[in-house]
Amino acid sequence: MSMTTDTVGISRKSLAGARAQFQARKLTDHVATVFLSACAVLCVAVLLLILGYVVYRGAGYINWQFLTALPKPVGEAGGGVGNALVGSAVIVTIAVLMAVPLGVGAAIFLNEFPSGVLGRGIRFLADILTGVPSIVVGLVAYGLVVAPMRHFSAISGAVAYAFIMVPIVLITAQEALRLVPSTLREASLALGVPRWRTIMQVVIPVSSRALLTGIILAIARALGETAPMLFTAFGNPYWNFDLTKPMATLPLVIYRYATGPYNDWHEQAWAASFVLVVVVLLSSILTRSVLRNKFDA
Amino acid sequence: MIETRNKLPSRGGDANPPPTADKESPPSAAGDANVPSRDISVTIRGVHAYYGRFRAIKNVSLDVEARKVTALIGPSGCGKSTLLRCLNRMHEEVPGARMEGSIRLYGQDLYERNVDPVLVRRRIGMVFQKPNPFPTMSVFDNVAAGIKLNRFWFSRAELGDTVERALTHAALWDDVKDKLQQPGTALSGGQQQRLCIARALALEPEIILMDEPCSALDPIATLKIEDLMRNLIEDYTIVIVTHNMQQAARVSDMTAFLMMDEDRAGFLVEHGETKQIFTNPKEKRTEDYITGRFG
Asked: Which site among B82, B90, B134 would you substitute to test the A interface, given the most A Cβ atoms closer than 10 Å to its Cβ?
């Protein structure tokens, strides 16, 4: 800006011009702040909307009987999702037992041993696999497990969940292992500790919190997937602990009840949604508190 | 208490007559032969060290005398740490790294085909530049780590004695005897470094390698560790890499000066008694480095 400065300072005319520009800049600043804040608020609002609406519709139906009883026959009021809760828990547990050793083992291979092109290829594939639609995963599990067995089963559901979980566990485990400083590995190797013991007794314990976080995230992701369950576990109105038979799961219950014709079923679907959302929310909170403890050490 | 070393000769005298029996020791690279009754622990001959295709060390030969402090000095990047890591076979842990030449510990070739690097590292301990105690273990477990991580069972009493002895040798016992169950990272920097030294001492190695052990510490802690080194000499051989020439002059008995050539490969310029190197170096390049004309 043109300025005719005398020994005292800025001339009156250019000060007025400067003030106008300053005001314009302040206005732009305010507008931008409001706009970006609105974006942030909208994002949070979406989350709160989902949570709030589920709580509003579903919380009222929750009681001990709902959580532990079997579903009633079609048309009768009452009943619960006891078998679905247990079924989900059982299937996820088996999936974890299958997916975690595979994922963590692969991450150890990728990170602790020179793996070169193979390692990069595996990681690349894992990144892709996290994006495979879960309905496709369900169909694959159908073709590989259900068809040869000739009936739906909890095992096939666990296999489908494991397919979804393995890439997530692999990626988070690899990141967890990467965080372990190489100086610790060197310290252990310099003590004459063989590499396998260095991995098992130094690297894994140091990264255990981050590994656990990855596993919890994978569980939370798998728990909510409905599509694979349609073709694998299929659902079951009774108590069932036989792994080779169909088993009830929470997402399936929500699907069947929400699309059914009965109001009572709709209410139960909302309540089951509430339970599912609470479980996923709790696992996210658990993850964060596990991570936070790490900084205390 | 340490596992049987079925691939390396036991310390001291054994079936293989080590070169220490000779009164005439082999000449070092500097050519000061015929020094009587030198006890050589490590003989390094014609060592070339590579990272992939890049040669980091070119044709280094020197003798490390037992129960003395040998300092490796030289400008940055001249291969001092690489040479140190070749001594306990840590160099090969870097992907693509390899070594040619021979390194013998009391006559036993450390790089022979049937020699287990894990056993080599139990006889040649190492202390790193930045203290690295295991964060998930207590002070006690850190010192005992060399033993605990290598076996499936051990007696508490045996461990307790070892830990106390190692901490005493590392001049740390009085500081931590009430804090043995605290995490290893709860100590100050200088104490952590002495903890790492105690951890190495617990395995009763014959040689202790130190890679710039004091560069991350304050002067008081540095002095404590230098005093510790003078005390350890009675039982151990120490090889130390240091950037600090005053420290090398204070603490070492023998000094080896390495430099980089045009291909950025390190080579040995001069090796001899510290007093001689620092007051009357034979090579002009050594004199230039010592007097600060470069480096």
From this structure: B134
| Residue A15 in domain | no
Number of domains forming the structure of chain A: 2
Residue of A180, A191, A197 for testing the chain B interface, max B β-carbons within 10 Å: A191
| The predicted structure's pLDDT at residue A6 | 56
Size of the A and B interface in Cβ pairs below 8 Å: 69
Decide if pLDDT at B28 tops 90. Answer: no
The verdict on residue A104 lying in a domain is yes
Residue A5 has pLDDT above 80, yes or no: no
Q: Does A138 map to a domain?
A: yes
- For all residues of chain A together, what is the average pLDDT? 87
A140 and A235 together in one domain: yes
| A198-226 residue pLDDT tens | 999 999 999 988 898 888 889 888 888 88
> Which of B96, B121, B135 is opposite residue A192, by nearest beta carbon?
B121
Q: What is the pTM of this model?
A: 0.77
Residue A50 in any domain: the answer is yes
Give the tokens for residue B197: 């030294």
Strands B124-127 and B207-211, sheet pairing: parallel
Name which of B90, B130, B133 is nearest A190 (Cβ-Cβ): B90
Q: Output the domain CATH number for residue A218.
A: 1.10.3720.10
Is B97 near chain A, with CB under 8 Å?
A: no
- A47 and A84 in a single domain? The answer is no
pLDDT at residue A292, as a whole number: 63
Bridge partner list, B238: B69, B208
Chain A CB within 8 Å of residue B47 CB? no
Q: Where are the alpha helices (DSSP H) in B92-131?
A: 117-123
CB A191 within 8 A of CB B145: yes
Q: Each residue of A145-167: b (16+ CB within 10 Å) or e?
A: bbeeeeebbbbbbbbbbbbbbbb
Please name the member of A186, A201, A297 whose beta carbon is closest to the beta carbon of B90: A186
Rounded to the nearest angstrom, the minimum Cα separation between B132 and chain A is 6
- Per-residue pLDDT of B122-138, as tens digits, reads 999 999 999 999 998 99
Q: Are residues A55 and A138 in the same domain?
A: no
Domain final position from A40, A61, A82: A61
The pLDDT tens digits of the residues spanning B84-142 come to 999 999 999 988 899 999 999 998 999 988 999 999 999 999 999 999 999 989 999 99
**Using the 8-state DSSP alphabet, how is residue B284 labeled?**
H
Burial class (CB in 10 A: 0-12, 13-18, 19+), A130: middle
Q: Do B132 and A197 touch (CB under 8 A)?
A: no
Range of the domain at A97: 63-296
A119 and A179 share one domain:
yes
Q: A265: distance to nearest CA of chain B, Å?
A: 51
Encode A167-213 in three state secondary structure: HHHHHHHHHHHHCCCHHHHHHHHHCCCCHHHHHHHHHHHHCHHHHHH
For the question of an ipTM over 0.90, the answer is no
